[in-house]
Amino acid sequence: MTSTSPIAATSTSTPAPAIALQDLEKSFGAIRIICGIDLVIPAGERHAVIGPNGAGKSTLFHLISGHYRPTAGSIRLNGEEIAGMAPEKINRRGLSRSFQITNIFPQLSVWENIRCATLWSMGYRYAFWRNVERLADAREKTERILSEINLLHRWNVPAGELAYAEQRALEIGLAIAGDASVLLLDEPMAGMSHAETERMVGLIRTVSEGRTLLMIEHDMSVIFGLADKISVLVYGELLASDTPENIKSNAAVQQAYLGTEAA
Amino acid sequence: MLEIVFVSTINGVLFGMLLFLMASGLTVIFSMMGVLNLAHASFYMLGAFFGFEISRHIGFWPALILAPILVALIGMVVERFGLRRVHRYGHVAELLFTFGLTFVIQQVVEMVWGRLPVNYVVPPSLNFSAFTIFSTTYPAFKVFELLTAVAIFVVLLLIIRRTRIGLIVQAALTHPDMVGMLGHNVDRIFMLVFGVGVALAAVAGVIAGPALVTQSNMAGLLGPILFVVVVVGGLGSLSGAFAASLLIGLVQTFAVAFDISLADLFGPLDLDNALGDYLNDIWNVTIAQVAPILPYLLLVLVLIVRPRGLMGMRDT
Amino acid sequence: MTGTSFSLPPPTPGGATSNPVLRYGIWVLVAAGLLLLPQVFSSGLAISTMCLMGTMVIFALSYNMLLGQTGLLSFGHAVFLGLGGFLTAHAMNMGADGLFPLPLMFMPIVGGVTGLAFGILFGAVCTRRAGTAFAMITLGIAELVASSALILRHVFGGEEGISVDRTELPQPLGIVFGPQIEVYYLIAAWCFVSMLAMYAITRTPFGRMCNAVRDNPVRVSFIGYNTTTIRFIAFSLAGLFAGIAGGLTAINFELVNAAQMGAAESGTVILMAYIGGTGFFAGPIIGAVLVTYLQLMLSDITNVWQLYFGLMFIGIVMYAPNGIVGLLAAQRPLLERRCLHRMIPYYVLALVPGLGALAGLSMVIEMTTQLSVSGSEGMSMSLMHIPFEADSVVPWSIAVVLLLAGGYGFLRAAAVTRNAYDTATADRRAG
Predict the structure, then answer these.
(1) CA-to-CA separations, A118 to A99, A132, A208, B6, B134, in angstroms, rounded
(2) Angstroms from B19 CA to nearest CA on chain C
(3) Which part of the chain is the ABC transporter domain (chain A) (predicted)?
């Protein structure tokens, strides 16, 4: 789809931003959860979304990833309009995500979980005539990703039987297995111990290498070390979007978010 | 012609209300517990047979009260000791459990009452004609059926609108995921809802039994139509179930009343080849003969146009 | 056991072995078994029973492509069996008239193509929804087809159905397919090929994605796949194999009628797959063989055999949701730990009261039948060659005591056994 909006127009000179939201809105019945968000995330940026509970962070992710259909507004992925597209179509265009509540294939082994997530991007689609065990490239990639998320030694275990932190790692693995250029991680550290969180930060740092990262996180200390930019979402509106330092010193943010946390 | 239209309309509304008596319980159970009770029509059949057996010994009126209570008790036992256990294995297992129940109930009914129709007749106190319209005398029992169904409909509406448990049911209809947050008495509510739901089906059985044939295949005949009703209406939508019940009730009774085929309308088909034989099958079939497949045709058509059903909001 | 091995053999979930000798060896054994079975069970009855089993194995496996592999509960799978059968029958009749020169041994292809075509047609409607709605739509479509069959008399032959004579077809290899044993080998060959094909499909990218859809359809759409397309392909392929089974049924019975695609047949295939175990490739095979055998055997000895079926099915749904193969597979960790012998006393402990309860239950069922339905034939009956009166107190007391005491004992013993099993398997995990 071609568009005449300024964001698309700039794409001729500079590369299009990885994600560009414009007047994005979502209502459930009479309740507005997202009330008009404008946000541009350039390719390669590590961007964090923070905000109090119920601010609409997860809803925002659901909109970008196609889980929900926006009520109004535009979402562009690498310059292309994706608002209202089915999740798989958005995924095929290079956006992948993880979930706040672990969302894996519990009966499949760890190995199958990751391999399934690689298949589409490797072009195997719905092939019911090829032996999946003989696909050397899928196998190599699965092995690589499993060692990256440090689950190679657990390859044969049904995913449902993994420990919580391992399932969270697998969740990340599912998100990166398809070679997406844009990664959405929804509270990847939720419910983890301090040591586990540190390992996860390291993992996120590696997997976001060369990708655009958009993540939701509650733990401020984690974000300030990881994110290039932070957006603060309060009651469905974008309060601020700036570098971690500026966010820290932003009075409005302190009042709305950091202030409440300190209190 | 006017006569056919009038009588068919009453009969259609009557059939529709009986369907809704069952579909309402089915819908509420589905909304709250997430399981479509495939054995719902079997409880309707149990109602008819209990109604028959009780009226044989102590009369129709006690049967109208006792049979649904008995069925409700059986339903609650099934929920408490069967469904609740299977719940942990997921929805497919729950569906299969109720599916297995249809087998068992049918076989038990056959074991006790045999395969032939039982002699469940209209009680003498209602065995007269209510009114004569044109040349058709309309039996009082059918009027009674209609009144009972409407009365229950009104009572249900009041319960759902005015009582605490009604509020919970309403909440479940609009926000099914919230049911789990009802607190510790959710188990008792489920058991109660299941009991009341199948009791409604049993009432339909008690009052439909004398007018229709009370036989061990009646669940198998009605069940599929009932499920068409809830899918066409939109799974989990009470108003959708109401609309679909009336729609299918009317469509079926009107179709039965019209003994017309394409051949009657356009004259016989003159084709003298093998293909002609096949086409003649379609050409000569009357609308009345097609009546049994109309609900299913309607189902397919509705789903092509509106995959979620007439008033369905949910995806599963 | 495999935890530290980093030179990854291709992992094969579901417990299948990765050893190529074993993997191919099993198929060689199956082929040999199919070839040799008629030597072992050579009576006429045995051979026609095995013919029926062979078709049912294909049918049940095709059903499990939906239920076990993709998590789709269909209540109308017999439609494809029936339509495949009817079209094969028509093709055979045309073949006999010289209009359709396909040798009999390839006739099931007609059934398969029919099944595939209708799978595509109906799948386009059904698979737009999943879960409960999908189940209800398949039920509706099945009713639609079954009712239409009674209207379109020339296609479906009305109440009598369509009959064929398989011996009238071209006989390129000189095989007449008159004797039942020749039909057995035809069915066995198609059964083997179909089993192999359906197994192979589980090991393809598509097959794995079916499992993913079964486990978590929402997640599937976030890894690039369209869940509706996966369901649609699975539905169509299941139709293909059910159609092959239908074609073989037409050849086997030389008759197809509308009952073959009715609700009862659709229900039977659910029973077969589930009783055998939907989580395992072998489950529906075992289920089809067992259910077919029990159908034939039980219907000989009791009038209410379907009640026993229903109760068995509910029992499996409630207490052994992984089916018979699931129960067997649960012994695998014990075998690996070499402590199966420790469990056997517990199994016996549970089995004895269980059998007692079963005996009590079947006494109640049989005596009730005698009292109500067969009442006109008098109250004298016999079970296990013991004659008694169905309306006397003693047998009822025995039945009730057996049922209650056995049932209670079984539940207690089952709990104890469960604990012992958990201990036996946990032991080794720790050690």
Answers:
(1) 18, 12, 17, 64, 73
(2) 16
(3) 19-260
DSSP 8-state assignment for residue A109: B
Architecture of domain A94-225: 3-Layer(aba) Sandwich (3.40)
pLDDT at B314: 54
- pLDDT, tens only, C12-31: 443 444 567 777 889 999 99
Residue B163 structural domain: 2-218
Domains annotated for chain C, with CATH where assigned, are 20-322 (1.10.3470), 332-430 (no CATH)
ipTM value for the complex: 0.90
Query: For residue C397, what are the contacts with CB-CB under 8 A and spacing of at least 6?
Result: none
Contact yes or no for C211/C67 (Cβ under 8 A): no
Token pair for A59: 């809803």
- Residues 6 or more apart whose Cβ sits within 8 Å of residue C197: C241
Number of domains chain B contains: 1
What would the CATH number be for the domain defined by A1-93+228-263? Answer: 3.40.50.300
Q: Is the per-residue pLDDT at B99 higher than 90? A: yes
Q: Could you give the count of Cα atoms lying within 13 Å of B82 in the half-sphere of its Cβ?
A: 25
What gap in Å lies between CA B220 and CA B38, rounded to an integer? Answer: 11
3-class DSSP state of B257: helix
Q: What pTM value is reported for the model?
A: 0.91
Instruction: Write the residue in B278, B282, B316 that is nearest to C131 by C-beta.
Output: B316
Token digits of residue A52: 């109090």
At how many degrees (to 10) do helices C20-40 and C180-202 cross? Answer: 160
Residue B295 lies in a domain: no
Strand pairing class (A80-81; C386-389): unpaired
Of the candidates B86, B99, B108, the beta carbon closest to that of C318 is on: B86
Q: Taking the domains of chain A in order of start, what are their residue ranges?
A: 1-93+228-263, 94-225
> Rounded to an integer, what distance in angstroms lies between the CA atom of residue C401 and that of residue C111?
52
- Structure token digits, residue A251: 């009075």
pLDDT of residue B273: 66
φ/ψ (deg, to 5) at A3 = -140, 155
Report H helices in C152-261: 153-156, 180-202, 205-215, 217-220, 227-253
Residue with the two structure tokens 């109930």: B105
Taking alpha carbons only, the member of B288, B211, B195, B222 closest to residue B52 is B211
CA distance A247 to A253: 7
Q: What angle do CA A209, A213, A214 make, to 5 degrees?
A: 165
Chains with 3+ CB–CB pairs under 8 A to B are C
- The verdict on a CB contact (< 8 Å) between B235 and C263 is no
Q: Are B263 and B284 in contact (CB under 8 A)?
A: yes
Question: C131 to chain B: which residues are within 8 Å by CB?
Answer: 91, 316
Quick one: which H or E segment has residue A73? strand A72-77
Strands A95-97 and A182-186: parallel
State the Cα–Cα distance between residues A177 and A246, nearest whole angstrom: 34
Residue C282's closest CA among C244, C318, C324?
C324
